[in-house]
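Hi U.,

Before I forget, here's the chain from the pilot set. I'm dumping it here mostly so it's searchable later in email.
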Amino acid sequence: MIAPGSITRLVGDIGGTNARFALATGGAVGEVTILPTKDHATFEAAVRAYLAGQPFAAQVREAAFAIAAPITGDYVAFTNRDWKFSIAELRGRLGLDRLDVLNDFTANAVALPYLRGEDLDGVGGGFAVAQRPIGVLGPGTGLGVSGLIPLGDKWIPLTGEGGHGTLPATTAREARVIERLAERYGHVSAERALCGDGLFALYGAVAAIDGGTPVAQSAADVTARALDGSDRVAIAALDMFCAFLGTVASDLALTLGAQGGIYIAGGIVPRFGAAFAKSSFRARFETKGRFSAYLAAIPTVVVRHKALAFVGLANLR
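Structure:
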């Protein structure tokens, strides 16, 4: 509940398909409203459409937006939408005292220290080491990657595009799958396999290699068929997806020295339920030759909070 006269921050998690907005006070996030991006010609138009329906819009003096795009300066261009804007100009046009624009996974990283036990589901062993870096990655529409670096009593979030690093093969079978993906995409980034479209692409590649008949029509269909055990190709594709994710997650852990833990966010992995813990993810995460013991000591945690970016945006300092 927003009290009259309180400091109110507009927060938004903006993807290619939907723009999600809410109002936040004191780190607490109110009800989330979802607006289809296709219904608005510009990002500013979407923001104004949301504010038009809010009785406390006049109290909004701050805003923070998480956007699925590189944030490299004042000018922001959306990756999966033909929206563009200047941060400084938008702040002025909306009459704001403060406007923060973050990459969506940077916002997710900021949220991690504010999560509770019910928001998290550990996979495998390991224990977090206090005041050590934390890594976060997550498959969704794309593959987001970020992290937190401790600095005294604060955390410094990282902004990058780690999902577009090259996807590595650990087995000969994975190399064959990557070869097929390369025929289609050229460069095979981690995101090419570790996102919704990527799971569906893996399904097609596995079917081609094994000589199976692909039946699933979407990533959601692949997941459903794998989880109910009705499609051997879907089962194999889902496990390869989890194995690739384990490889990429362990690379992130080694790069950051993430002894504070690796968190798996995004909309896809929570849908796997108990099957994720039984998959090849954790075994692959720990299989790193001389550094296997180092990785075995690092916890991996699935984030089940459904509005993670909002938590980060509401708690920006």
